[in-house]
Amino acid sequence: MDAHSSSKVNINGTKIPSIGYGTMVFPEPEKAVELISFALDCGYRHIDTARKYGSEAWVGEAIKHSPVAREDIWVTTKVTEENAKAYDFAQSVETSLTTMGLNYVDLLLIHWPQPNVPLGETIGALVKAKNEGLAKNIGISNFTVDLINQAAELSSEPLFTNQIEYHPYINQDKVIDACAHHGISVSCHVPLARGEVLSDPEIVKIARMHNRTPAQITLKWLIQQNATIAVPRGLNQKEIIENITLFDFSLSDQEMKMISDLRARNLRIVDPEVRRPLWDKP
Ligand SMILES: NC(=O)c1ccc[n+]([C@@H]2O[C@H](COP(=O)([O-])OP(=O)(O)OC[C@H]3O[C@@H](n4cnc5c(N)ncnc54)[C@H](OP(=O)(O)O)[C@@H]3O)[C@@H](O)[C@H]2O)c1
Question: Is this model's pTM higher than 0.90 or not?
Answer without folding.
Answer: yes
